[in-house]
Protein 1
Amino acid sequence: MTRLRDEKAGCDFRQTFLEHYLAPAWAQSWSFNPGSDTLLRAYSRVLLDELEGRNTDPRNEGVTVTTTPRRLMRAMSKWAKDGAKYHFVIARALYGSEAQIHEWVGNVVRGPQGPRFFQSVEGRADSLLWKRDYFRHEEEVRLICIKREPTVDEGKLKHFQFDPNETISGMSFDPRLRRFEQLEREAVVRGLGYTGPVTEDSAYHRIILDIQMTTEWPDPA
């Protein structure tokens, strides 16, 4: 939304909205963060039963998968061939203060292209990459699908075929799960055809420090 002075209407400001310049778009989020307790707990729920040690909320349990920009770009290239009416972009999120984001939008709409900048692939992608500093810990990378023509909305979800063994470079399960449940989860994904590496996430393992001392410790008292 932008505010403009409207001399003809005899009022100080009128409101205009950018939504009419924005083509339909869909985004999938990845992260450069190699491991985060905050992100894990945001996307995975594990509540262990005290007696059985099983997760009582498996429906909301998450799985960590890793990939590379090159693998994602290969998948995007296939989608672009099959869906000529879409553009595909992959880029790192841009973080800034609210004031910085406000200034960026203002500079764009006051620039040579005005709001039509957001009708370009670059402009539409940029509009989906800016995030507030509050979310900087996510270190997000977004894979964006942009429709070439701003026609009828196709719905909130966009589905594309991909080969997990080509796109996913590794997988691990929630480290709060007991080992027997992690093995059960691995058996399931193997049964579905995944052949890539599955590693155990040791983030919550207890650490034992074995330090060789050359002197005696003083009495703590």
Note: The chain has six helices and nine strands.
Protein 2
Amino acid sequence: MAHKISVTGRPTSSIQDYGKYLAFDMEEKGSPNAPKGIPFKSNAITYTIVLSQKQFNKLNINQEEFPQRRFLVQGEPCLDIPFEQCTGEIGVICMQIQEIEDKGKEKKQPKQTPKKGSRANNQEESKPQEESKQEQEKKPDPKPLLVPKGTRDWMSLDDIKVPESFLQFTPGIAKQKAVEESIEKNGTVDKPIIVNPETYELLDSYSRYYVAKKKKLDRVPVHY
């Protein structure tokens, strides 16, 4: 079975263009606390991500905006990347890349009361948008990596601390099956797992954690 690596965060370098493929660096910070009994702490690691021109074009982001966005990269480690191109500690061949929600930057849009006489204009303006949307729905798009609604970050299962009260409980078969079907179809759980943002302690969604652990997922989506 091929080794899998998931990296979440912002690029820490500009994109290097090598013709048929591109490369950039990303950094993963170490976990603040190691599991009980382990005297070592994990360190930050810099990865050099290599992706194809086609993968980059699908993001619809220009190279100037790229370092300002946040991404989830899933790939496989590679030792054959030339030294002068692999400035990070570990080279990663990108299998999937997707822009994810930048936590802490959600903005609530104030409700606006439509002015008199503007309702008809709004309806007319919305028609071209609806028609364009229908045309887009007809076109088959490549299946994207599922990022469940409400996801704030991606976290290793080993970093999530599970209270003893949860460990004494076994989720029902029906709940397990529903989560397993989502993992088989989308590669991850259907909804983010709820954790404490400071202690990383599991607060809710133990059924999803339980099945993800059983399926040996590298990372899961979380919500604070």
Note: The beta strands are 5-9, 16-17, 21-28, 45-52, 71-78, 90-99, 153-156, 193-195, 202-204, 219-223.
Protein 3
Amino acid sequence: MDDARKNIVLREIKYWKEHRLLPEQYCDFLITLYTEGSETGQEVTEKKSFSLKNFIFQLINILIISLLILTFIVIYFTELSIDLQIGLITVFVGMCFSGAVFFYKKNHSVFFHIALITGILILFLGSVNTISTIFLGAQIGLILMILLNCLFWVFLGFRLKLKYLTISGIAGALLLITYTFIL
């Protein structure tokens, strides 16, 4: 096989490996077969190197996800006053949305989505807890707050062109309206 054809085949195998169209072991075998056991000057099998940037992004992402766990702890397992709970949850939501903006500007979509979803969930939990505590079981306040959260999700979904957010907001609003009128 001439070198031009061999390079085309090797690039195609590399593409399969990167996009996981074939298992990695198969791709490694094929690369070894076509290079006859030696790597060419193209660096066909690239090893993932340690990246400080990705490591920092992973740490920020872990911090953001841990804020959701901290929100559960603050709401359900502590005896903090409602003012302090609102303050902490506001700080948590601000941190999540700041992380979402940061990742959006850096074009790291996975991290952006995780930060956005975590912020929205913390906002939902905090607002429902606050309304439940302030109005002491008044159903109308709770229903309005959940509906307001769903409308916020729909707004963000349309604004950021995120289908999953739009669909979850509409589904949540429909479920809430169905629940309200059936019961």
Note: The radius of gyration is 24 Å.
Protein 4
Amino acid sequence: MAAIFMLSACGQPDFTYVRDREGTTYFKVPSSFSQLDTEAIELYLTGDNPNSEAARLRRQQVWSTAFDQSAQPSVEHLLSSTDPFVYATVHKLTDEERDAISLDRLRDFVLPVTGQVRTLYEAKAAQAGRQPLFKGFELISDQILQLDRGARGVRVRFNYQIGDDVQTFDHTAILDEQGATVSVMLIGCQSICFRARAAEFDKIEETFKLLRLPG
């Protein structure tokens, strides 16, 4: 990952500039966010053993990073935090995944958003004899993105009740023009925090773009 710092007048960095390892996806976050260990966030999301074949293959196909504005940063803040959390990932799609990709698949790329996937998620939780972690889904907004050179995507904002708190998520997923990669940014914090700081999160999301490299 390449990260470049822009210095302010007092010599301190204002932003962390981020690109994925292939240099095709770009965004920036305020320097008040702490960057988390990539391996830790992926293991938290997948539950894979770091020495397993699944984890090895994922490292080849998936790039990710995360930033937490909490005074005590933690990968667990991805799903529930009073402070803002930013997760970004780029997936190289297999041939099978390319054939199955759709706007709904982009919506469900990290968390269950569409009715079909939410129903499946709840059914699996019931079969396992446990309460679902995510409850009380509320859709706030849903936009289809038509981007340069045939790239397309979605931006969805929604609420979930997690424990006793309502968490708001802003999810942007972009399929590149070749249908080869999906780039995702997920911004979240508790709903009270999100309403108060939505304009700041819009500015972060607006920097999330695909890059066109020479050659």
Note: The two ends are 20 Å apart (CA to CA).
